[in-house]
Specification:
33% of the residues lie in helices and 21% in strands. With 280 residues, the chain is an alpha/beta fold. The chain has two domains: 93 residues, no CATH class; 151 residues, Rossmann fold. Strands 8-7-6-9-10-11 form a six-stranded parallel β-sheet, sandwiched between helices. Strand 6, helix 4 and strand 7 form a beta-alpha-beta unit. Helix 4 packs parallel to helix 8 and helix 5 crosses helix 6. The longest helix is centred in the C-terminal third of the chain and has 17 residues. The radius of gyration is 23 Å and the shape is globular. The protein starts with 11 loop residues before the first helix and ends with a helix.
Length: 280
């Protein structure tokens, strides 16, 4: 059996080059290769799609290309940065192909706005979760790299344009732990007006602070749906009070947000004792 790619097909080396180019530009790229098919001539065909809406190659059939492209968004949620899977696609009458798909992208970001006590453990946990952590604050003495050794970037900002140096996208997370609701408001206005806002927006604060911020947003014309995109107060109700405990509660909600768990204690979900060792 020949190890050469089908004539006119993209080679594995060329696909790898496209992946490296996309990653250097901070883009997501999907690659696909036919591993089985009803038509053996399609096996080995390769194609790629980038987040810049560029693509190259072909899986050997326009209808197959379109079938795979139409499923990419549902197969690879926006928060994922790397993943691989195989799926069987039907295209045309009696035709099918099994496609091996890979997603390559930069790590999702965790942008922490506010470099106070909660930000320190939250940055550490975020890095442990594989997120690219950025910490922003307008106070140079707080936004100091030595305070956040696990962060990819620590920036001194102006709250008039807090995200000037970083643009969080749909795969990213922004957590507002600023020192006042006026700063929260400035951040939320810009986040909610982004054409592709971050998938996760969280804001710490008391019920009074959250209400005051939301009231100000409503006066600016933001809808209830806009307000519901902000997870405020942020975090799961774990009962913690210390900065580290609050950081764990926020990180736990981020995991829950993406993984779709119940948030219940596993002992209550599985009920091993009641199911297997109960009376009778």
């Amino acid at each position: 059996m020949s190890t050469h790619p089908p004539r006119g097909n993209l080679s594995a080396a060329r696909i790898a080059a496209r992946v490296l180019e996309a990653l250097a530009r901070g883009e997501r790229i999907h690659t696909a290769v036919v591993v089985e098919a009803s038509d053996q001539a399609l096996v080995g065909r390769r194609r790629w799609w980038s987040s810049r809406r560029l693509n190259g190659g072909t899986l050997g059939s326009r209808s197959l290309d379109e079938a795979v492209a139409g499923k990419l968004r549902s197969l690879f949620p926006p928060h994922q940065s790397t993943a691989a899977l195989s799926r069987r696609f039907a295209f045309g009458e009696g035709r099918w192909a099994r496609i091996y798909l890979e997603l390559h992208g930069p790590p999702a970001k965790l942008v922490i706005v506010g470099a106070g006590h909660i930000a320190i453990p939250l940055a550490r946990i975020g890095a442990m979760l594989g997120l690219r952590v950025e910490v922003l604050d307008d106070r140079p003495e707080f936004a100091a790299a030595e305070r956040f050794p696990d962060a990819h970037a620590v920036r001194v900002i102006d709250f008039c344009d807090p995200f000037a140096a970083t643009r969080p996208g749909p795969a990213d997370h922004v957590v507002l732990v600023t020192r006042g609701h006026s700063f929260d408001y400035e951040c939320l206005v810009r986040l909610l007006r982004m054409s592709s806002p971050p998938g996760y927006i969280g804001m710490i604060g008391s019920r009074r602070r959250v209400r005051a911020t939301h009231e100000q947003l409503r006066r600016e014309g933001f809808s209830t749906d806009d307000l519901l995109r902000v997870r405020a107060p942020v975090g799961l109700d774990l009962g913690g009070q210390t900065p580290a405990e609050i950081a764990v509660a926020v990180a736990a909600e981020i995991i829950l947000f993406h993984s779709g768990g119940t948030g219940k204690p596993l002992v209550e979900k599985e009920r091993v004792v009641e199911r297997f060792f109960g009376e009778g």
